[in-house]
Amino acid sequence: MSSVTISKDLCTSFKVSKVFSHTETPPITSLDYDDSGQFLISTSVDECIQLYDITKGKHVKPVYSKKYGCHLAKFTHNQKNCIYASTKGDDNTIRYLSLSDNSYIRYFRGHKGFVNSLEVSPKSDVFVSASLDHTTKLWDLRASNPQASIPSTARSSVAFDPSGEVVALSNVNEGVVKFLNVKMFDAEPFYVLQLPKGYQWDKVEFSNDSKFIMLSSSQYGHLLYDSFEFLEKGKLDGFTPIPQNEFASNGCASFTPDGKYVFSGNGLGNVCVWSLNPLDNNRQPVRGNFKPLAYLKGDARPRLCLWNPCFAQFTTADVSISMWIPEEAN
């Protein structure tokens, strides 16, 4: 398969290629791709995990979790397996599921409150969870008990850097992002980034090229920071707040795999595209506020947005799944 350079022209040419809708109004609460980019997984408020094959543009199957509910399904490094958080009753167990035969491999118990953030390391079989029980825990897929647990003010969100060696732990109430060494998870953070007062975000994310940290918000827009010097690079302008359902947003914005562009759903019913590429800005260093390159039309309610890690393709979602590819590929 030939490689494709992600460029300004490519980014502004995307069109919806496929739309999937399974029931009348099942708001979708999370999206995730496997490492190969072939498969996409979603969770929704109808207590169902949906699996898609991106390369075939095909819905593979539903996996129901009616007894426990489901949220934040994340692939492990085996595309046939995932973990996900529970949503019903007092069961806050994280479940490790085989998608091949719908059987549970392991249960991760320890949280006493709703798990609102869940991320798998890009390099190892380690994952991190943040809960409304005021703790953040480090886990290993091979063991049921947490490897480490630290206090964290609810509502916190977590992210791994591309090396898998650093975890960003962000908290809106404290207005900070704390950076932790995975190997010394329960030690003091090696850096604490102070955020602007009053800014409320939904997600913290590193770009794959390790240059940027993005604090994205479905209500307040997106802030960009240098991940080496921890300096604010600017705000992504032109964003309109997105209407929410009962689940807080966990991904309305997403970096392209090369880290040079950001795509985000918009409350106006389109997808904003911003360039962080100096080649698109007269070779000037990335700084200041950024105006959108384009507003892509094709999904009336793009509340969630996630780029494929391997292909020139991304997905938006709200009550349906919309898959986007460049116009020339349609």
TrEMBL record:
Put simply, this protein is called WD40 repeat-like protein
**Record keywords, A-Z:** Nucleus, Repeat, WD repeat
Q: Which SUPFAM superfamilies match?
A: WD40 repeat-like
Q: Which InterPro entries is this protein grouped with?
A: Swd2/WDR82, WD40/YVTN_repeat-like_dom_sf, WD40_repeat_dom_sf, WD40_rpt
Organism, scientific name: Cyberlindnera jadinii (strain ATCC 18201 / CBS 1600 / BCRC 20928 / JCM 3617 / NBRC 0987 / NRRL Y-1542) (Torula yeast)
GO molecular function (one):
chromatin binding
Q: Where are the WD repeats?
A: 108-149
Which SMART domains does this entry report, sorted A to Z?
Answer: WD40
Protein family according to the UniProt entry? Belongs to the WD repeat SWD2 family.
